[in-house]
């Protein structure tokens, strides 16, 4: 199969003076995750790194006000669409429950949709995602790129982030929230002073994937009570508190009806 060459692999959108959203528009919507570059006074953070189809680090360094500043990779969790570029960074932080997964990914590691288990594909359809393509991409980053040669590369954590830990950028401090249910070690970054929440796949404005329904329900109830001003999710556009509550209220009854 021959795919067209993308004009550029990453789409970037500055959300405010210090926050930039990056996306991979040529990845199927199911695996098209948000990456957030958060620039601080002393340190920058990249929250998640997409699929790892094309190098991310040079793109970030071109965007950063000071590319010489330390840059840490924080993984919201260890799914393929969030840790693809983690190996490009020297400082790699994740919750302990998914550190092994990031070091040696155990889930799908290829771009071939057929490598998902049939039950998993059915779960995505049931959640409301459109059917997968044969490959997870509809373009290649450069001429001659071989999608069959793609292999998700993990990397071991250099530090661990647990509930209540601080991610300190110098002039801003984010608190780590442990938000399990989609995955065991899902974390969010919460800035109480501004009400800004980076939520990973614990909540976003699209079809949610509850892997452990009862645990997920607890996480959603917790999120519903947070005085957020804006939520930057792991997928889909950002949203405010009313939408957060509407998403939770639509999802909770389904979780409560689910077995387990
Ligand atoms: Zn995701
Ligand atoms: Zn995920």
UniProtKB/TrEMBL annotation:
<dbReference type="InterPro" id="IPR036866">
    <property type="entry name" value="RibonucZ/Hydroxyglut_hydro"/>
</dbReference>
<dbReference type="InterPro" id="IPR050855">
    <property type="entry name" value="NDM-1-like"/>
</dbReference>
<dbReference type="Pfam" id="PF00753">
    <property type="entry name" value="Lactamase_B"/>
</dbReference>
<dbReference type="InterPro" id="IPR001279">
    <property type="entry name" value="Metallo-B-lactamas"/>
</dbReference>
<comment type="similarity">
    <text>Belongs to the metallo-beta-lactamase superfamily. Class-B beta-lactamase family.</text>
</comment>
<feature type="domain" description="Metallo-beta-lactamase">
    <location>
        <begin position="32"/>
        <end position="235"/>
    </location>
</feature>
<protein>
    <submittedName>
        <fullName>Glyoxylase, beta-lactamase superfamily II</fullName>
    </submittedName>
</protein>
<dbReference type="GO" id="GO:0017001">
    <property type="term" value="P:antibiotic catabolic process"/>
</dbReference>
């Amino acid at each position: 199969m021959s795919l067209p060459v993308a004009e550029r692999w990453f789409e970037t959108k500055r959300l405010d003076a210090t926050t930039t959203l990056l996306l991979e528009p040529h990845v199927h919507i199911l695996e098209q995750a948000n990456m957030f570059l958060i620039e601080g006074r002393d340190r920058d953070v990249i929250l998640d790194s997409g699929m790892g189809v094309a190098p991310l680090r040079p793109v970030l360094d071109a965007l950063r006000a000071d590319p010489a500043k330390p840059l840490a990779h924080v993984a919201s969790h260890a799914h393929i669409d969030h840790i693809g570029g983690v190996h490009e960074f020297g400082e790699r932080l994740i919750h302990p429950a998914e550190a092994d997964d990031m070091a040696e990914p155990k889930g799908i590691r290829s771009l071939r949709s057929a490598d998902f288990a049939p039950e998993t594909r059915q779960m995505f359809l049931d959640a409301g995602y459109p059917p997968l393509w044969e490959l997870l991409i509809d373009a290649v980053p450069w001429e001659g790129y071989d999608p069959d040669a793609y292999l998700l590369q993990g990397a071991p954590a250099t530090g661990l982030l647990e509930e209540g830990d601080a991610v300190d950028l110098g002039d801003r401090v984010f608190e780590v929230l442990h938000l399990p249910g989609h995955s065991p070690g899902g974390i969010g970054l919460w800035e109480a002073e501004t009400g800004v929440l980076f939520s990973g796949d614990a909540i976003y404005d699209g079809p949610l994937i509850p892997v452990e329904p009862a645990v997920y329900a607890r996480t959603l109830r917790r999120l519903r009570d947070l005085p957020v001003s804006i939520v930057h999710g792991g997928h889909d556009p950002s949203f405010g508190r009313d939408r957060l509550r509407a998403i939770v209220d639509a999802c909770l009854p389904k979780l409560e009806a689910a077995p387990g």
